[in-house]
Specification:
Layout (H helix, E strand, L loop, with lengths): L5 H24 L5 E3 L5 E3 H17 L5 E3 L12 H16 L20 H9 L10 E9 L1 H6 L4 E8 L2 E13 L9 E8 L4 E5 L2 H5 L4 E3 L10 E4 L8 H11 L6 E2 L4 H7 L4 E5 L14 H9 L2 E4 L20 E5 H25 L1
Parallel strand pairs: 3-4, 10-11, 10-12
Antiparallel strand pairs: 1-2, 4-5, 5-6, 6-7, 7-8, 8-9, 12-14, 13-14
The protein binds adenosine-3'-5'-diphosphate (A3P) and magnesium ion (3 copies).
The site of one magnesium ion has 3 residues, from strand 4.
Family: Belongs to the inositol monophosphatase superfamily.
Cofactor: Mg(2+)
Protein name: 3'(2'),5'-bisphosphate nucleotidase
Length: about 350
């Protein structure tokens, strides 16, 4: 297989893998004052900051000219009052960067025991994620911990990285440390990485580098679903998606199974390996704009697994408008056959809702 983005793919997988090891280890040690509340009231932890520093450092070494659109910035880590938080981030990031080279990693990637960075270098690395995005050129987008609320609950979360070229996602890598390797065995081993390169398919690979080198990758294709086999994949957080609307759509689609609620882009990963059949995210009506890092890696994964992803009106997701998806309204992802039925059901559900509202007045 001749890959167009072979180096990008290897480096992105290594970066996500090291960030997954970091976040898994930090979870067990997290203490109360290591979580902050951002201006938008959402949580951020030392895990988010240090994972962003690690991924940005790794990308910066091999692709120094590539800008990065990352979720976090270092403002809350700088200054005297944040000294203990900052020290913790430095400790965690350096632990991840200086771990011995793993199978497949290269000396020139700047990893391994002699590669510790200073606090200043790490803060600057976090801030390399401040690129505003846009329509042209190469750029990466990073969500160091997607589903921070799931992470804090000990449930699903994901380390998500994508490469965009002229606003088109070319490569997506999603690490899910808490996702069961085999969906048929939910209490079995956990931790997997999902990789999709445009034109080259979607794969699940082991989270461990040595197991991955042993060749345990699995090609993923979304299967066909009969209506009675479908279940909606949706957010756990009510503030992120209008779940009452999802219920209406499920009813119109003839879905009888209860929804599967899961945090983060792990939902896209579940979808591409044949779980649920529909990803549905409807805006709650607060004017929130979806962020590109919350959907870019998932979108290429879905498309490479033979699926379709659009907003809830059937419009393509536009990754070229900056850090957000702009006017895109919600997200629908599914296999080709199911997707068009979902868009139709969303339309009917909107009409029903409007009628209900009018009658209620
Ligand atoms: N009002 C809102 N509507 C939709 N998404 C929101 C939202 N507020 C926050 N989010 C996003 O929802 C993401 C989690 O997705 P999900 O609901 O599928 O688990 C969060 O990612 P982070 O956890 O990285 O901040 C955050 O970016
Ligand atoms: Mg966040
Ligand atoms: Mg996110
Ligand atoms: Mg995040």
């Amino acid at each position: 297989m001749s890959l167009t983005y072979s180096t990008e793919r290897q480096v992105a997988i290594a970066a996500v893998r090291r960030a997954c090891a970091l976040t898994s280890s930090v979870f067990n040690k997290l203490v109360r004052n290591e979580t902050l509340t951002k201006d938008d009231k959402s949580p951020v932890t030392v895990g988010d900051f240090s994972a962003q520093a690690v991924v940005n450092i790794i990308l910066g070494r091999t692709f120094p000219k590539d800008p990065i659109v990352g979720e976090e910035d270092s403002a809350d880590l700088r200054g005297d009052s944040s000294a203990s938080l900052r020290e913790r981030v430095v400790e965690l990031a350096n632990e991840a960067l200086t771990a011995p080279l793993q199978t497949g990693e290269k000396e020139q990637w700047g990893l391994g025991p002699s590669n510790a960075r200073t606090a200043e270098e790490l803060m600057d690395a976090v801030d390399r994620g401040n690129y505003p995005g846009g329509r042209t050129g190469r750029m990466w987008t990073l969500d160091p911990i997607d589903g921070t609320k799931g992470f804090l609950r000990g449930e699903q979360y994901a380390v998500c990285l994508a490469l965009l070229v002229d606003a088109r996602v070319q490569l997506g890598v999603i690490g899910c440390p808490n996702l069961p390797v085999d969906p048929a065995n939910p209490s079995g081993a956990r931790g997997c990485i999902f990789v999709a390169e445009r034109g080259h398919g979607a794969y699940q690979i082991p989270v461990s580098a040595s197991e991955a080198a042993a060749g345990a990758e699995r090609r993923l294709v979304i299967p066909s679903f009969a209506p009675d086999q479908l279940s909606l994949l949706e957010s756990v957080e009510k503030a992120h998606s209008k779940l009452s609307f999802n219920e209406r759509v499920a009813h119109l689609l003839g879905v009888t199974r209860p929804p599967t609620r899961m945090d983060s882009q792990a939902k896209y990963c579940a979808l591409v390996r044949g779980e649920g059949g529909v990803y549905l995210r409807m805006p709650t009506g607060t004017g929130y704009k979806e962020k590109i890092w919350d959907h870019a890696p998932g979108s290429v994964l879905v498309e490479e697994a033979g699926g379709v992803i659009t907003d809830s009106r059937g419009e393509p997701l536009d990754f070229g408008l900056g850090r957000t998806l702009g006017e895109n309204y919600g997200v629908v992802a599914a296999g080709r056959d199911v997707h068009s039925r979902v868009i139709e059901a969303v339309k009917r559900a909107k009409e029903e809702e409007a009628k209900g509202d009018a009658q209620g007045q």
